[in-house]
Amino acid sequence: MTAATFGTLLTAAAAAVAAGIAGRRLAASRPVLGFTLRRLALVVPTVIVVHAAAFALMRATPGGPFDTDPRMDPVVRAELAARYRLDRPLLESWLDSLAGALRFDFGPSMAWRDADATDILLSGLPVSAALGALALLFAVLLGVPAGIVAALRRGSWIDPVVRVVSSLGLAIPNFLVATALIALFSFGLGWFPPAGFGTWKHAVLPALALSLPVAAALARLVRTGLLVELPKDHVRTARAKGLGPARVLFVHALPGALGPTVAYLGPAAATVLTGSLVIESMAAIPGMGTHFVSAAMNRDYPLALGAVIIYTVLVSLFNLLADAAHAALDPRIKP
Amino acid sequence: MSRSDGPVAILFKDTSARIAAGLLLILTLVAMGADVLPLADPGAVDTSRRFAAPRLAPATTTLSAEGAARLAAAPGLAPAMRRALFGDTVIAPLLGTDELGRCLLSRTVRGFRLSLAAAAVAAIVTLLIGTTVGAFSGWKAGRTDAIVMRLVDLADSVPVVFIVIFAVAFLRASGITDPSAKVVVFFATLGMVSWITMARLVRASALALRTGAFIDASRALGMSEPRIVFRHLLPNLVPVMIVALSLTVPRILLFESFLSFLGMGVEAPDLSLGTLARSGFAAFNPVDPRVHLLLVPGIALALLLLALNVLGDAVRDAADPRLPRP
């Protein structure tokens, strides 16, 4: 074990413990901040567990990635094993790899021999982030108004239409949605390109395909939340004292109704990230999803491991943000 | 509805739940009876009719001499029933054919069957792990419960999709060569990652039930702890298990098709809805989109998921009437 490995592991452990203790201290005076700190402290053990699982899977596979070519010179093979630190004792290479993961340094890629796994992933991250952000935006723009309208117009034709469409949105697999969108808007109407990435036009169809299941879930959550909130006394009072319908809805009914919706944005981010694996591969978008899928197929250990760790951290952070926002919005929630 | 209505009666008062249950029953029967129905051989290549579009007439044809010989030689009860019922008649490729001229209808039915089997195996694994963990944690309560649930929280923060892709990719390189063993391992992997919802719901229910009067009564009668757990606690957990399954099974199905679509799930010559969609997407192009190759398996999957979701919503409503009806 090198000094750098030891230092990283010690720093990570100290940071996690410090955040946990600070979070516990602040729990009474600043509940949301304290909760956020305690959850941040949990990110480190999560990364350790995920890393251990992925590492175990990698090492449990019989035959290393360089054992497949029978003509390879044993000297070359030994050189390669040394370069990728496959020749070290198990415990040492596990700790080294874990420390690297905690520093976001995943070592050289095995498939792209001249590149670092971290650099490849970082080149894909902005692409995936832009796509995901656009998808979440579409989902909110489509889902929240649909849920509001369905709740307000309960009993009219709009409510069952929203219900059926949102059930369909949850049931239709996103590769089907993506194909339908490509067939219609790029092969048929020619408005958007079918694949590739570069301009904003490239992002519209993939983001739309990614957003549909999230929009469907949001519509349902907003509708159910409003249906619980609208008959409550404070909403009736607001209406009785003569406030306009828009003010009643946005100021008095919605804030109380949106709690579960805000909490869902964490899982929603996970849904979008997962969906982007398929959508990016389909549309040949050079994001993290494409890199991860091809790395897993090619047994490019460092790249696949790095992608899993980055996804783990992203999902943890989104869940944390969503839960913190939920707690800030609704003081009854004891985080 | 009257107060005496049981949950099943409440469930089937809902028209959409009745339709969903009927659709599910029909789809399952077709999938299970696939060997009896006069479907074309899903692997029979006919390059004279590559990428044929869906066409409703003629509805049936007769088997080729080679196909008839194979059917006559097929062992088992199902082919015998097929020979007795339908003879040499075979359904024409009503839904079109794929890149090798194979009947898409027949392939979709087989793929559907495998996807259903995937869901069933994964559901059983989910039930086993989730119920064991949840019931243990809820029954023990106290410190054991706190420790187990923190571990479940930790397991829940692991992004399972990525771990499964990882596992599947490395499973491929492992020593398993028997294709059916690979399929079972794949399904079991799906189940192993989707037990958390089950564990949480079962645990909450067990925690509430363990202080119930009937448990006190069983204890007062001098029953042993295993007897109380298996004869009295577990039967009362069945409703919550069904609710958890209604949440988990659609997710597993979507997940299976998703992995197979990426080329990481079921491998040829096995068929699932996801692998069919994958080959449909490979044939998709602007000049001749051949959309039926993607639409047929996609719609089959969407119908199945829609039926399961609608039925699941109704099951949850019936199980907990206090919830606001969505």
Number of strands of chain B: 2
Give the mean pLDDT of chain A: 80
Task: Give the helix proportion of chain A (percent range).
Answer: over 70%
Distance between the termini of chain B: 18 Å
Structural classification of chain B:
mainly alpha
Total of helices of chain A:
13
Strand content of chain B: under 5%
> Mind telling me the C-alpha Rg of chain B?
23 Å
Fraction of residues in helix of chain B:
55-70%
Strand order, biggest sheet of chain B?
1-2
The pair of chains with the biggest contact is:
A-B, 53 and 44 residues
Instruction: Please give the radius of gyration of chain A in angstroms.
Output: 24 Å
Task: Count every helix of chain B, treating DSSP H or I runs of 4 or more residues as helices.
Answer: 13
The rounded distance between the terminal residues' Cα atoms of chain A is 39 Å
Task: Please tell me what the overall shape of chain B is.
Answer: elongated
- How much of the residues of chain A is beta strand, in percent? under 5%
Unreliable spans of chain A are none
Can you summarize the main beta sheet of chain A?
A: none
* Gross geometry of chain A: flat
**Mean of residue pLDDT values of chain B:** 77
Secondary-structure-based class of chain A equals: mainly alpha
Describe the structure.
The complex is a heterodimer of chains A (335) and B (326). Chain A has 335 residues and is mainly α. In chain A, 77% of the residues lie in helices and 0% in strands. Chain A is flat, with a radius of gyration of 24 Å. The model of chain A has no long low-confidence stretch (mean pLDDT 80). Chain B is an all-alpha fold. Chain B contains 13 helices and two strands. In chain B, α2 packs across α13. The longest helix of chain B is centred in the middle third of the chain and has 37 residues. Classes of the chains: A mainly alpha (335), B mainly alpha (326). Chains A and B meet through α2, α6, α7, α8 and α11 of A and α7, α11 and α13 of B.
